[in-house]
Design a protein that fits this description.
By secondary structure, the chain is an alpha+beta fold. It contains 11 helices and 16 strands. The protein is 28% helix and 29% strand. Strands 1, 2, 3, 4, 5, 6, 7 and 8 form an 8-stranded mixed β-sheet that branches. It has a 6-stranded mixed β-sheet with strand order 9-10-11-12-15-16, sandwiched between helices. The longest helix has 17 residues, at 292-308. The protein is globular.
């Protein structure tokens, strides 16, 4: 399964979160009542959460685990109150009775939350970051770039490597349950009592908040959250189904974090009934018109995935460039830029050709809050 690592500044806040089996990001509300890119990015992270994904906490150089997202009333993620995904300045008094987390007026900053349990436990023995990274260096990609974020998502192999080092350091406590955090069901019970369809997490309001009358979205991150939502919840077939999805995934050699290249959306799917990866997804997003340089950018990511994930087999990669419009010059340039020649086997060598980049035009309808896609 995938995993999430939540960063906590306060050890008591972390312990409370573990005890109650909930996590919620504090979001500073925008003064102009328009979500910023960092808000939309946080919402996008919640959208792909699903039952069974693992949970970890990071505090003061140490990582604590292990948890697992669980469904309550059919889902593992919720709005803290109805319309919490709108950047409105609600008053605590008017909505407190509808809030899942209602500790104080500052709880209005908690717009989304997720629910989890220990799996098997959250151990009190945290593992130092250096020990984690050195335990299986090749597996840790996203953890090395964990910087200026409230939390990150890690893929299956990185997740397993993190579980391994935590279990190794807590093997003596597995059977006894000693030195583990206890659980409370207070917030989970409140969710069972309070939640209905008004608390459902989706991209509808995120996109609507930055929509235009001409069918394009003003923020690429809002479009990113929408596409993640549509793929995760099978609202469109054009991109196919993927077992793992993430966004803003590192796609360059290690260097200062602010200068690292990141794929808008990355994913993979398994061969049905097996844990063998069959395909990788590379998806780049442009809110306006696409350019020839955008095709070059996607292909740079395709080459990176081929090098780091599919190890020379381009056939494992499916790539998409999504934009509001594609000028004819871009369409005409695509065939020359996107072809990759490679060798499939060694003995005898079998030459292959890859050109699996698809151009997808999007349009947003603010009336019904729906995204529409069409292949060029």
């Amino acid at each position: 399964m995938a995993g999430y690592i939540f960063s906590m500044n306060d050890i008591q806040a972390m312990e409370y979160s573990i005890k109650e089996g909930i996590y919620s990001t504090n979001l500073n509300l925008p003064k102009n009542q328009i979500w910023g890119v960092h808000h939309e990015g946080t919402f996008a992270d919640y959208i792909t959460m699903k039952k069974g994904d693992n949970i970890f906490f990071f505090h003061d150089r140490k990582i604590y685990g292990i948890g697992e997202l669980i469904n309550i009333k059919g889902d593992c993620k919720f709005l803290n109150f109805p319309d919490a995904d709108l950047p409105n300045n609600f008053t605590f008094k008017e909505i407190r009775h509808k809030m899942i987390l209602d500790f104080s007026s500052k709880s209005i900053q908690n717009r989304m939350l997720c629910t989890f349990k220990g799996s098997p436990y959250f151990f009190k023995n945290g593992i130092d970051m250096d020990e984690v990274l050195s335990s299986n260096p090749e597996k840790f990609r996203m953890l090395r770039s964990f910087w200026k974020l409230s939390f990150i998502k890690i893929d299956d192999s990185e997740n397993k490597a993190l579980i391994d080092i935590i279990l190794k350091n807590n093997e003596k406590n597995l059977s006894s349950g000693k030195y583990t955090y206890t659980n409370s069901h207070h917030i989970h019970n409140r969710i069972n009592y309070l939640v209905n369809s008004d608390y459902k997490v989706s991209s509808d309001n995120i996109m609507y908040n930055c929509s235009s009358s001409t069918g394009y979205l003003k923020h690429e991150m809002a479009l990113e959250s929408g596409i993640l939502d549509y793929i995760s919840n099978k609202k469109t077939k054009i991109f196919g189904y993927w077992d793992y999805l993430s966004h803003q995934v590192v796609a360059s050699p290690f260097k200062p974090i602010d200068y690292m290249d990141k794929m808008d959306i990355f994913g993979y799917k398994y061969i049905p009934n097996f844990k063998t990866i069959s395909k990788y997804l590379v998806l780049e997003i442009k809110k306006d018109k696409a350019t020839i340089e955008d095709i070059n950018q996607v292909m740079k990511y395709v080459d990176w995935v081929n090098q780091e994930y599919s190890y020379g087999d381009y056939n494992m990669i499916e790539a998409f460039l999504v934009a509001h419009d594609f000028p004819q010059v871009v369409i005409d340039a695509k065939p020359d830029i996107t072809i990759r020649n490679y060798i499939k086997t060694r003995r005898p060598p079998v030459p292959k050709k890859w050109s699996n980049l698809r151009l997808i035009k999007y349009n947003y309808n603010p009336t019904n809050k729906q995204l529409h896609f069409r292949e060029i």
